[in-house]
Design a protein that fits this description.
InterPro entries: Asn_synthase, LarE, Ni-pincer_cofactor_biosynth, Rossmann-like_a/b/a_fold. The chain is α/β, with parallel strands linked by helices. 45% of the residues lie in helices and 13% in strands. It contains twelve helices and seven strands. The strands form two sheets. A four-stranded parallel beta sheet has the order 3-2-1-4, sandwiched between helices. A three-stranded mixed beta sheet has the order 5-6-7. The chain is globular and about 60 Å long.
């Protein structure tokens, strides 16, 4: 008896929607959904990337390259999350307002062009983190094929490798607003400053990083192996100079290795359930 593989099950799940717009960042999760949608739906699948001040430099070009590689049509839409007061306020529900803006745009596009569904790259591991964006998705009827199939990040990367998806090992790159502590107002100039600082560090060869914005202070977080490199006095000086050149008066290099979602650690169980 043939046992259905995870890829076969995911392909069938996506194929069943008939046609779809994929919310596409170019990260591994949405790239896997896009790759399978291209296989299951062909010309009835469209990957769409949102462009705004919160998109880091290079991410759009990366998304375009992945879309071309996996064979899915690709378009961009402009989103205006900064026009939403709830987003600018940057409380713990910022992502709800961001995703509401995104899904409003994708719903409009899908309705206008006759696509039956909007798909996201949320995976099963996202359930354990603070993800108010999932509430916005639920309000818009967005489907999460990876989550529905019970696929977590490890399984997603394995399938992405199996399909030769270029972003299979791409580090996560959430929107630039995620570098601001909750309660720090989001503005275009601040997002641009964070982007300049992170781009400068990438040009130094650092790959997995965040520059956390604390007003005049930029706090650099690096992956464990890159933190060792930054311990060299010359490297440390280069990192500090790069971040200062982006407009920060003070620079700290966090002694703890970077971990995704670290600014969510202060969200209490009560707040998670709100």
């Amino acid at each position: 008896m043939h046992t259905t593989t995870p890829l076969e099950a995911l392909t069938a799940r996506i194929g069943a929607v008939g046609s779809a717009v994929v919310a596409f960042s170019g990260g591994v999760d949405s790239s896997l959904v896009a790759a399978v949608a291209a296989r299951a739906l062909g010309a009835r699948a469209l990957a769409v990337t949102a462009v705004s001040s919160a998109l880091a430099t290079g991410e759009l070009e990366g998304a375009r390259a992945v879309a071309a590689s996996v064979g899915i049509a690709h378009e961009v839409v402009d989103t205006a999350e900064l026009a939403r007061e709830g987003y600018r306020r940057n409380d713990r529900f910022r992502c709800y307002h961001c995703k509401s803006e995104l899904y409003d745009r994708l719903d409009e596009l899908a309705a206008r062009r006759g696509y039956a569904a909007v798909l996201s790259g949320a995976n099963a591991d996202d359930i354990g983190d603070w993800r108010p964006g999932l509430r916005a998705a639920a309000e818009h009827g967005v489907r999460h094929p990876l989550l529905e199939a019970g696929l977590g990040k490890e399984a997603v990367r394995a399938l992405a490798h199996a399909l030769a998806v270029p972003s299979a090992e791409k580090p996560a790159s959430p929107c630039l607003a995620s570098r601001l502590p909750y309660g720090t107002a989001v503005s275009a100039p601040v997002l641009e400053q964070v982007d300049r600082a992170e781009l400068a560090l990438k040009r130094l060869g650092y790959r997995v990083l965040r520059v956390r914005h604390y007003g005049r202070l930029g706090r650099v977080q690096l992956a464990a192996e890159e933190l060792v490199r930054a311990g060299d006095p010359g490297e440390r000086a280069a990192v500090v100079a790069a971040v200062r050149a982006a407009g920060y008066d003070q620079v700290e290099i966090d002694e703890r290795p970077f971990r995704s979602g670290s600014l969510n650690l202060s969200v209490t169980p009560v707040e998670r359930s709100r």
